[in-house]
Amino acid sequence: MNNLAKSFSRVSLLLALVCLLAASASAQSTRKQMRTANKFFKKENYRAALPYYDQVLTADPNNAKALYFAGISYLTFDKEKSADYLYRAYELKPNLDREMEYWLGRADHINYRFDSAIDHFQNYQKTIKERNVERKEEVAQLIQYAKNAKREVANPKDVFVKNLGGDVNTAFSEHSPVISSDYNYLLFTSRSEEATGGKAAEDGEYYEDIFETTRTGEDSWEKPRIVPGALNSAGHDASIQLFDNDTKLLLYQSTNNGDIMFSERQADGSWGAPKSISDKVNTRDFESDAYITKDGTTMFFSTSHYSENGDLDIYMVQRNNNGTWGNPKSLGRTINSRFDEDSPYLSADGTLYFASRGHNSMGGYDIFAAKYDSVARRWGRPENLGSPINTPDDDTYYRLAPDGSYAYLSSYRIGGYGEKDIYTINYIKNADVKGRVLVQGDSTLTLPGVELTFNGVQADNRPISYRDVSKPDSATYSVNVLSGRNYQVQLSLDGEVLETQEFEVPVVLDDTTTIRKDFFVTLEDSTAARIARRAPDAATGEFKMENIYFATDKYDLRPESMEELDRIAEIMKANPNLNISIEGHTDSRASDSYNMTLGQNRADAAFDYLVGKGISAKRMVTVSYGESRPAVPNTSADNMQLNRRTIFRVLQRDEIQQGEEVQ
């Protein structure tokens, strides 16, 4: 071997040695990162564990163990990522861990894949040893949770759940909302980085502290600030309730394994040092939450003190004449199950709301409601508030606003900011208001084409508005409005306001109430003449043209739409002087600009079809209103379908010009 060959051989050997050492160092580094991650994982400090698992996965994306444990870690604050990691681990090594099916079931359950969750739980159930009775019972309960959730999600309640927004909610847990009687001052509990100066608890989360904020707009709040003074301790603290005309605050502190405390507002507006609410309530065990009735005579609270298995149960105490609290009394087995019951709240109508992991929960804590039967002297069977108020994960701290028109809720659900967030729930039911628009002084003369706009405000003074147009053949209208409000009803014709009237809609607590209301309008002679010229022939119904409807994000004509367009073509052929406006509408799913285009496409689809049927293009104009003129509020799938429509309006001769579109 010559010298050059020997040199190349030595270099190659050296490079191989360097690569071997680098690979060995990389492997050692990966093992070290896994050990560190697993150390945090075993302490349930998942936030601290995840960066190390992610470092392992950066070096080795197919490391099934890192994917598996990271997936379990993400369950607490990123449901969708948790499922993604767990399924990737499962695809790489299905038999990686005997608990794999269990965790896949948990991830599927909270991600609303209930059938798949049940399958995984049942597969896991077969692997549990007979002597492990506790584990078998747990998995059987999880299967029941999934079945309950599947049923509730398939039958959602007509309520609107809305995230309180990024002014209050963070990537950490926010819960226990407490609103003042004027709706403008909010106390809540957070584990954000600002809690107790950024000090972290053993689980890697920050200690719970009480924060405060003030409303600045309809849906906006000031930047929350930790409540100053002595209200927050070095441990966990949580807001519970404002009472005695907002002069006192009920709160939780983790001292003594968890106690219920109270604080009084000082002259300068700050809160005084917390004191124990009563030694009849607080014990050496865990007291988690409480509620004092408005008259101050009764307190409901959650405690583990009297439970045989350590779960939370709800008790009540009465205030004595001397101001002290009496002996606790259990609410009984109808309310208290063998699982945890927590966060009691009694509404003004006597309904007890509480959170429970038992009864027919969808998973974790659900919110339940129960009524007390004063004759039988017992609580009625708790009712699950259902979806979308409840989810497959924890839903707690349900509190009604002072007038009962909406509620606050703490929940960990898909689409939130991280862990638990605070949400609002529209509580009062809607009512259908129906009637006719008539001429004042002659109840036989109807007014078609009149736009009715119902303007009102919610309990927190946010504006609400609903509209309809009286029908061409009958002058009838129908609007679905939030009840319990006084509305200013504006009646307009062709953009001209005829008059404004007041109409009070009483509070409605069911889903089927219809209120009849006819509106009588005083007309000027010129307006009356214009309406008379435009009105269709009510006797023959020749000018009656029904709306046509579309699928989501589509402008294809349905078979039933073609039938209606065929009928319209026949009417127009029989009435050669009849001109129409074809007006496209959408629901509110997309942006304004996108919906304007979609509405125009829907109007054009009808226009093109009628041209194809021999109707002159000069007799028709098209216009898109996008989402700006909903027939009904976009609050449900059924309502959105009613808004995805094209309508047909009869035009006078001078309202249409060749080649000009109505804007």
UniProtKB/TrEMBL annotation:
<keyword id="KW-0998">Cell outer membrane</keyword>
<dbReference type="Pfam" id="PF00691">
    <property type="entry name" value="OmpA"/>
</dbReference>
<dbReference type="InterPro" id="IPR011990">
    <property type="entry name" value="TPR-like_helical_dom_sf"/>
</dbReference>
<keyword id="KW-0732">Signal</keyword>
<dbReference type="InterPro" id="IPR050330">
    <property type="entry name" value="Bact_OuterMem_StrucFunc"/>
</dbReference>
<dbReference type="InterPro" id="IPR036737">
    <property type="entry name" value="OmpA-like_sf"/>
</dbReference>
<dbReference type="InterPro" id="IPR011659">
    <property type="entry name" value="WD40"/>
</dbReference>
<dbReference type="InterPro" id="IPR006664">
    <property type="entry name" value="OMP_bac"/>
</dbReference>
<protein>
    <submittedName>
        <fullName>OmpA family protein</fullName>
    </submittedName>
</protein>
<dbReference type="InterPro" id="IPR006665">
    <property type="entry name" value="OmpA-like"/>
</dbReference>
<dbReference type="InterPro" id="IPR019734">
    <property type="entry name" value="TPR_rpt"/>
</dbReference>
<feature type="domain" description="OmpA-like">
    <location>
        <begin position="537"/>
        <end position="654"/>
    </location>
</feature>
<keyword id="KW-0472">Membrane</keyword>
<keyword id="KW-0802">TPR repeat</keyword>
<feature type="signal peptide">
    <location>
        <begin position="1"/>
        <end position="27"/>
    </location>
</feature>
<dbReference type="Pfam" id="PF07676">
    <property type="entry name" value="PD40"/>
</dbReference>
<feature type="repeat" description="TPR">
    <location>
        <begin position="30"/>
        <end position="63"/>
    </location>
</feature>
